[in-house]
Amino acid sequence: MDLLRLITCGNVDDGKSTLLGRLLHDTKSIFEDQWEAVQQASVRRGDPATNLALLTDGLRAERERGITIDVAYRYFATPRRKFILADCPGHFEYTRNMVTGASSAQLALLLVDVRNGLTEQTCRHAFLASLLRIKHLIVCVNKMDLVDFRQDAFEHVRNQFMAYAERLEGLDIQFIPIAALTGDNVVEKSARLSWFDGPPLLYTLETVYVGNEINHVDARFPVQLVIGPSDAAPSFQGCAGQVASGIFRPGEEIMHFPSRQCARVTAIHGPGGPVNEAFHPMSVVLETDPPLPLARGDLLAKPNNQPTTGQEFESMLCWLSATPFDPARRYVLRHTSNAIACTITQVRYKLDITTLHRNQNALPLAMNDLARVTLHTSAPLCYDSYRKNRQTGCLILVDAADNTTVAAGMIL
């Protein structure tokens, strides 16, 4: 079975955690002790029925305040597919947590309360999903039970969203009416939504095709560990790491960056022995001839398909730290397996996610801000644009003084 990584996002109280709880419950993916703990917690809170949202809201502060704060990961499987679900918070102050959860997702479930329609936070999360190159977006028009399952209420929300979606790029958008609290159209098709001719949510998740999203064209292998000669293998030299994209095969010519020296792959070793080809997300050891001047953080690629190399480039940053950006502080850029000193030489503009307005005078960068910046590294960096390759186009910035992560970025 293949694996689908997905997130839930949307405005506060639009039903994200309840939907995940409903999916876990109706697919029988909950242990008995977990269900008993949720039942007891619901009684203590005075809830009229078992609160399914408590299956994902595990922090004490989340249960006390009734909101999602951190990203909660849950796992379940059906006969067709395995799933990793990330329940992202809806509050604006936790936008950085939503960006973290969405960075590895292939599909986003955007919850919309049918009574309220589109809100500012709904638009923010839809834009962030587009910016992070999540290609599949399912708009779940939730709480249909509160409007008597009326088709005109569903159509109104769909028309609202499609008017906004004209400004988004590269999204495959589907709309599904649901009632997460009662389970209508979540796992089984609901008779109360007979006017909707599409499948229920779970079937859509099981059958959506995501295999074409893996980049098998641009061969990139970041070096994590150099393996040199030893007493057991005096002539062995190779490097270990995870294939970021593309395909590597024995006998092919590769180029080493930054030296640009070429060599041939003589063998590829996987956990179970030699393999005939390696692709993402396989972790392998590449054996080369002749030996290359390898070091952690280097990159291997094909001579006819090279990454961009440079010390200055532009990136869209999401500021994650409570400490605002300070030009005087030193930062370390972490990119694949590489760590290199970096400075932000220019903040070109901050982006208002709701209106998509570019504000060139709103400084400094503060937590949850999204901005286009110019970065300068102390040595050349080998990279691709995030649009072309998510694996080699993403980065994080770390404060060199206290080693805290201050920003996540996408190379433009």
Labels describing this entry:
Elongation Factor Tu (Ef-tu), domain 3, alpha+beta, eight-stranded antiparallel sheet, six-stranded mixed sheet, Rossmann fold, single chain, 412 residues, 23 strands, 3 domains
Structure, described:
With 412 residues, the chain is α+β, with helices and mostly antiparallel strands. It folds into three domains: 3-213, 3-Layer(aba) Sandwich (Rossmann fold), CATH 3.40.50.300; 220-301, Translation factors (Elongation Factor Tu (Ef-tu), domain 3), CATH 2.40.30; 308-411, Elongation Factor Tu (Ef-tu), domain 3 (Beta Barrel), CATH 2.40.30.10. Helices cover 18% and strands 34% of the residues. It is built from seven helices and 23 strands. The chain has helices at residues 16-26, 32-45, 60-65, 95-102, 120-131, 151-165, 201-207, and strands at residues 3-10, 72-77, 82-87, 107-113, 136-142, 172-177, 220-222, 225-227, 238-242, 247-248, 253-257, 262-270, 273-274, 278-279, 283-289, 299-301, 308-319, 331-335, 338-351, 358-359, 370-383, 394-399, 405-411. The strands form four sheets. Strands 7, 8, 9, 11, 12, 13, 15 and 16 form an eight-stranded antiparallel sheet that branches. A hairpin with a 2-residue loop joins β12 (262-270) and β13. The protein starts with a strand and ends with a strand. Mean pLDDT is 84; it is low at 59-69.
Helix and strand run:
EHHHEEHEHEHEHEEEEEEEEEEEEEEEEE
- The general outline is globular
CATH architecture level-2 label of the largest domain: 3-Layer(aba) Sandwich
**How would you characterize the largest beta sheet?**
8 strands, antiparallel
What structural class is derived from the secondary structure elements?
A: alpha+beta
CATH class of the largest domain: Alpha Beta
**Could you list the spans in which at least 5 consecutive residues all have pLDDT below 50?**
59-69
